[in-house]
Amino acid sequence: MQAACPCVSQPGRIQAVSPQGDRTVKSAVETLNPTRVRLTVEVPFEELKDSLDAAYKKINQQVTVKGFRKGKIPARVIDQRFGRGAVLEEAVNDALPKFYTEAVNEAELNVLGQPDVDITELKDNETLNFTAEVDIRPAIEIPDYSGIEVEVDAVEIADEDVDKAVEELRERFASTSPVERPAEDGDVVTIDLEAKVEGEVLEDGVASGVSYTIGSGELLEGIDDAVKGLEAGGEATFTSELKGGSAAGKESEVTVKVTQVAKRELPELDDDFAQLASEFDTLDELKADSRKRLETARQFDQATQAQERVLEKLLELVEVPVPEKLLEDEIRTRKHNLEHHQLGQMGLDLAKYLEIQGKTEEEFDAETREQAVKGIKTQFVLDELVNKEKLNVNQEELTEHLMRRAQSSGMSPDQFAQAVVEGGQVPMLVGEVARGKALAVVVEAATVKDTNGEVVDLDDEDDSVEGEQAEAAADASAEADKSDEDKSDA
């Protein structure tokens, strides 16, 4: 990010900018507010010559005039037949982006998004004057952040936590054997399902041979009560609200038929189980490894918690004006992504989602706005820190971040990398990593204590945890990237 523009005057005042080299184009900048400026640009008509020539050439290729070969129509004939105004319009549309960009660069502005351009004067063979209002990154003063103090959860692993982890592993190695009795809690039943809405069987409401563990809560509400007590061959009908599919959210009459009842059998917790489920020879070694894994996971959670709380404290220290147009665009993008991507995949619309969440539309709008403001402020502050601390991103860091993003997206690293390059997203990924490093700098300078009052030294973790912590810091600002790298043309 470039430094704040030295050419920008106080609000309401205009300050002229010197001509660009030996050219006679003039521009001036007026500060409308801390995040928006108005550029006033005066262009002598001779500066439009190249664009006028291009306009005549383009029109020449598009029109036919009797008596002239295509592409060889004189300019005076084009003016007579089609009007000089059409040529001027084409030339101005071609020239405006160039003159706007030159004015932005001359003033050293860090613009955001597209400008609102207004041609204030266009005199044939005399002059072109226009204004361009555009949002800019605000000047941000980063205060001393070394005094930030936050509290995080202590890393404490109880014996019960280890026992639970081992029990979950034991569940994964359970076996089943068919039984000839009514189904009970914990049994695995094989079932056929048929769902009807208003008496009609849904095209996507029929399924056969579905394996379901009673009490798991993985299927429809009410199915546990329906199948308990049924033997193989038995069936029952119940009503339930469908969670997905073509009739998501609607009440359905569901018929379930049990084709098999199987009892789950857990292996004994002994050394044989440890050898079956892991690379360890004894149950004690397995439990020790489970404890270590839990500690690593809690340390990662602790580091993530520290980053989130340090970031909140940092944002409280910095005054960050937010461009209103950028904010509205960000809110609109967040709503669109939620409605058309996330909820669409779940078979929900916004109204149903709000009903499930127990929120009004006004509460949802206020929450979305708050999240968007925080995202934009986070990006601005961390970008300024990247500059202040002179942080760079090397190829190894970028590759590691790309690998992790690919994994979370469900794509192979090669596929993800290709999509990133083709979509022009490399600067976005670089920005995410750089902001992650900036946040890590602040966390390192802050005092982090756990709920026991002990100082937490996040540098004391092993390499794998440190890598995950660094990546979590990068992800902490990824939500704000929708407004990144928006230095745009007219």
Automatic annotation (TrEMBL):
It comes from the Bacteria. SUPFAM superfamilies: FKBP-like, Triger factor/SurA peptide-binding domain-like, Trigger factor ribosome-binding domain. Transmembrane segments: none annotated. Residues 456-469 have a biased composition (Acidic residues). Residues 452-490 are annotated as: Disordered. Its EC number is 5.2.1.8. Keywords: Cell cycle, Cell division, Chaperone, Cytoplasm, Isomerase, Rotamase. GO terms for molecular function: peptidyl-prolyl cis-trans isomerase activity; protein folding chaperone; ribosome binding. PROSITE patterns: FKBP_PPIASE. It holds the Pfam family FKBP_C. GO terms for biological process: 'de novo' cotranslational protein folding; cell division; protein transport; protein unfolding. Its main location: cytoplasm. InterPro entries: PPIase_dom_sf (IPR046357), PPIase_FKBP_dom (IPR001179), Trig_fac (IPR005215), Trigger_fac_C (IPR008880), Trigger_fac_C_sf (IPR037041), Trigger_fac_ribosome-bd_bac (IPR008881), Trigger_fac_ribosome-bd_sf (IPR036611), Trigger_fact/SurA_dom_sf (IPR027304). It is found in: Cytoplasm. Residues 186-239 form the PPIase FKBP-type domain. It catalyses: [protein]-peptidylproline (omega=180) = [protein]-peptidylproline (omega=0). One of its GO terms (cellular component) is cytoplasm. Residues 479-490 have a biased composition (Basic and acidic residues). HAMAP family: Trigger_factor_Tig. Belongs to the FKBP-type PPIase family. Tig subfamily. Involved in protein export. Acts as a chaperone by maintaining the newly synthesized protein in an open conformation. Functions as a peptidyl-prolyl cis-trans isomerase. Consists of 3 domains; the N-terminus binds the ribosome, the middle domain has PPIase activity, while the C-terminus has intrinsic chaperone activity on its own. This is Trigger factor. It comes from Streptomyces aurantiacus JA 4570. The gene is tig.
